[in-house]
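Chain A, query sequence.
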Amino acid sequence: MDKDTFLKYSPVIIVVLAFCFSYKIFVTPSELETRLQAQEVRMAETFATKQQVESQEKQLDSISKKIDKIYDYIIGRK
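Chain A, predicted structure.
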């Protein structure tokens, strides 16, 4: 790239770099680590783990069986 081309596009390059720095497009590794940790915390608060879902499914199955037993008992008495 020769000097004339560089001088021609230098205002555009400066604006693009200023945009990147002002909107924090590029982050340092320490900033990235803190952002990733914050994202992990939000994900842990929002989503359930597979173990939690399986536990809830077992509880719902148990409740469903008990309701079926109660229903059969009530129908059997009539």
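Residues 26 and 62 are 52 Å apart (CA to CA). Helices lie at 3-22, 29-46, 50-77.
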